[in-house]
Amino acid sequence: MRLTKVMMVCSILAIGLAIASCKKEKYQSRDISMLKPPPPVDTTTPPVIDTSVVIDNCDKADGWQVAGGDPVVVATGQKEGAGYIQGTIKTGQNFMQFIKTLPAPVNTKVTLTTGELKFWFYVPDVSLLKVDGQIQFSSAADPDNKRVGWGMDKIIPTLKNGWNHLELKFTDGYLSGDGGPDLSAMNFVKIFFWTAANAATDQNFGIDDIRVAALPPPPDVVFDNCDKADGWQTVGDVKIITPGQKEGAGFIQNTITNGNDFMQYIKDVPTPVNTTFTESTGRFQFWWYVSDVSLLKQDGSIEITSSGKSDDHESAWDVTPLIPNLKNGWNKITLDFDKSIKTSDGGADYTAINHFRLFFFTADKAHSDLVTGIDDLRFISK
């Protein structure tokens, strides 16, 4: 009897353990409905790549001179790197200059029309400065030769107390009489200025992070987007075509039909367009559609004028050298101002363009219809 009771107790315990082992273990909820996904990566804006060329990072005193004593490398408060160069106009003095002579010439990789000198300039009290002095950048290790310079009289009024980031375009500077610097071999920087009166207390000035950078290209200037027929003339009625345009809402189209051999596109604008570019920096660009290039005659002209008519204050380009590079369909035409053919009056005034003409021919009058078009006339930088 006692054995039977023991067996019954063991059976009950075994059943209890089996039931307990079958219970579902509870875990913390994995509901992620309230979690916010990370923001998408912006792929529409290209990354900014620094292509500037360092002239001196001002982390060491090597090659530096300052007025009134030795240059000091200050390791706190710098704008870049490990320090900056400090010079002090001491009490009772009124002059400071920073001079850096490089041990090896630096190729800035820019031109006088495309580059700028950039650096940080620390001024403790702008109100104490005399509106005078210069910044000089040379390839002759000499401030008076092979130099581009800028007057402090134009810079000082723009300064504030503390650090100032100066961006000095070469096009705004003045060149030495020998033609200016060789920007592929720059080796010298000089910055000098005065206080208006002798300093009542020591005045600490600083220079940091001297470099040359390429200027961002200036914006394009649109002459006409070819979305409307206003001001346009062609041989026959002006047609606005969509789709197929290269820009905007449409393009200007016309056809040299069988039996004819000539087409022209003329655009007059009521208000002259300032291209903002010069003879050496500007280009004229547009899209030209030709359905069958093989039908074109080696002839024609592309003209822009500031007189409101052709052959007067005109800059032009021959069509003939373009034809071998054309393909059937759309072609982007890019023409340098300085390669244009000028009328005897000096050519177009690029600050006041008001007339465009493109004319061309087929090789003969017996041909399949030649469909042509024009779109997106604009002025761009080299």
Descriptive overview:
By secondary structure, the protein is mainly beta. The chain folds into two domains: 53-214, Galactose-binding domain-like (Jelly Rolls), CATH 2.60.120.260; 221-381, Jelly Rolls (Sandwich), CATH 2.60.120. Helix content is 7%, strand content 41%. It contains two helices and 24 strands. The protein has helices spanning 2-22, 152-155; strands at 53-56, 64-66, 72-74, 84-89, 95-106, 115-123, 134-138, 147-151, 162-169, 174-175, 186-194, 203-214, 221-224, 232-234, 239-241, 251-256, 262-273, 282-290, 301-305, 314-318, 329-336, 341-342, 353-361, 370-381. The strands form four sheets. Strands 1, 3, 4, 6, 9 and 12 form a six-stranded antiparallel β-sheet that branches. It has a six-stranded antiparallel β-sheet with strand order 2-5-11-7-8-10. A hairpin with an 8-residue loop joins strand 19 and strand 20 (314-318). It is elongated, with a radius of gyration of 36 Å. The model has no long low-confidence stretch (mean pLDDT 91).
